[in-house]
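Re: the request from the purification team.
They wanted to know what the chain is likely to look like in 3D before they choose a buffer screen. I agreed to run a prediction and write the result into the notebook, where they can find it.
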Amino acid sequence: MGHAGMAAAAVRYLRSADAPPVQALPRPELRCVGDDERAPVGQAEFRRVLGNFATGVAVVTAPGTTDDPQAPVPTATPAAAPAPG
């Protein structure tokens, strides 16, 4: 059973136990890093963290602003060797 199956089983269990509904946490304000700003983490740290995922690939998305509700969706990801370093 994968992560999705375990999550679905947990939801079914909680619903069957008549657990009270849980209020969603408030969403933090998200924004892109501007061209004139420094990224919150360095490139080496970013690669180290993403390297811990089993697939080696992670797609990170964030909601758009209220003026632009649709975020671009990648239709394919290129297969590329990791950069040395």
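For the purification team: Helices lie at 3-16, 43-50.
Please add any questions underneath this entry.
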